[in-house]
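Practice record 12: protein with zinc ion.
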Amino acid sequence: MPAGFPDFRLGTVLATSFTGTLSERYGTPVERIPTPQRLVDWLAVYGLAVDSCTAAQLDLARELREAIHLAATAAALQHPLPASAVQVINDRSAEGRAAAILTPEGKREWRLNADSGVEDALGVIAADAINIIAGERDGKLALCASPTCQAAFFDTSQSRTRRWCDMNTCGNRQKKARFNTNQRKNSSSAE
Ligand SMILES: [Zn+2]
């Protein structure tokens, strides 16, 4: 991994992992795909390897990312979906020409076209977002309980009571904050 760039936060759900490439939206935002190459790197992690990416394609990706963020947040709150966000998601989905391929080992792979790799990859991500926002997959959209994050995530826990987008980051921070508050309370009551 190239030095100097923020690490990726890797989740299991494609669309919400993609929105997680910008984190701490309500705190000090961290852009995890600051350059076209970092988008290329991120896509490769999710089986959407592309040869190259232009600055314009990175803009397209970020526009889709924010559209998914807005639509998924609205869906989690059971608010009406913002029309402009829906339009962007639908446009990217319609534009993508990726083919789902079944490997001899019984795995699914995506075949992207050489001349439209990024657009095809964004189409796969947009379609994934449509699936979870439309309730086509088993799970529930919810918002992260961290006030500086509030990311929409897809809760597939049995009880549907997950509180954080990511246990290792937001969940941990929250636990530590609570621990520190308790420590302070204990030490002040002892005085
Ligand atoms: Zn979070």
